[in-house]
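User: Predict the structure for this protein chain, please.
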Amino acid sequence: MRKIYTLLILLSVAGLVRGQEINFSRVQDMTIWYNQSLKTDKQNSLKLNYRSVRYGGQIAYNSVAALFDMPLLSRDGKNKPNSGYFSFSAGAASDKTNDGILNNTLGMMGISYAIPIGRHETYLAAGFQGEYYRSSLNLAGVSNAFGDQYDNYGPIEGAPSADRLANGWSYGHFNANAGISLFSNGRNDKLVYRGVGDAGQSALFL
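Assistant: Here is the predicted structure, written as structure tokens:
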């Protein structure tokens, strides 16, 4: 019994955690990126997100993201209370630093199913998601990009980089994850409990 109480306390505390997401200016709009089962309504939606970060008056990086999700059910099913439903989502994102030195792209597709477990629009949902991530580095025209190599005494000024994967290389990997959530869309309440797990990744160097 003590383990159950401990788990409930940890879930409650996790809901109070605050973190910073560098890619999205409104991370609360992009929850499906992190847990596919968090499609908690029966409406189609399209979310577009743009973020530009500057330091010292210069552009540090730009992030663009688009996320589309839709329930896979009929019009009558959308209006029917306490009915289970599949949902599908697809998204893409791009992050670019100043002068295109670092370029990251991401594509995502996922599906989830929500099953009613009680009255007042209470559901238990499970989702699966696959992502492909690609990153490339281009240091053409950038001098002394890796001039801060270190030894036991500190940085060695002007030392060449020993990193073979630095300039002109790119890599990509596939990532799969699954998530679960328990949510309620009652008239007088809105509750969401969630969990997510990473199924691992495979890397591809180009």
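The chain has one domain: 21-205.
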